[in-house]
Amino acid sequence: MARYEGPLNNYDRAIDNVTDELDTQAAMRDLHWPEGLTRQLAEAIVSNLDYAFDIRWRPRWVKPGEPHHWSETGEDPDDTLYFTECLACGQIFESGSEASAQTAYQAHRAEEHAG
Fold first, then answer.
1. How far apart are CA 38 and CA 23, in angstroms?
2. What are the pLDDT digits (tens) for 68-101?
3. What is the domain partition of the chain in residue ranges?
4. Within 13 Å of residue 114, how many CA atoms lie on the same side as its CB?
5. What's the whole-model pTM score?
6. What radius of gyration do the chain's Cα atoms show?
């Protein structure tokens, strides 16, 4: 089963990014928060920001016309999944190999976004 079904929305992306940052900051400061607290804090922060600001996800590190790539590793490094996201339409390609995810994206781009 795919990790991501369809395009990711800005709200969920923001929650994931804030959760990651809170986890990083907590680890650097040797904080021992209860499990799930960073996610709850992230949801509260993003909810407040979303109420007052127009939150848009724009990966400034990705060159125009290029896809967004990332990987996620489970507890076992052999469980690493690779993702390639088409920024034109939000389609996400997932694979156990980076090359395969990129190949799927290239085929998608040639078929769906040619021209």
1. 6
2. 999 988 778 788 999 999 999 989 999 999 999 9
3. 10-52, 68-112
4. 5
5. 0.73
6. 16
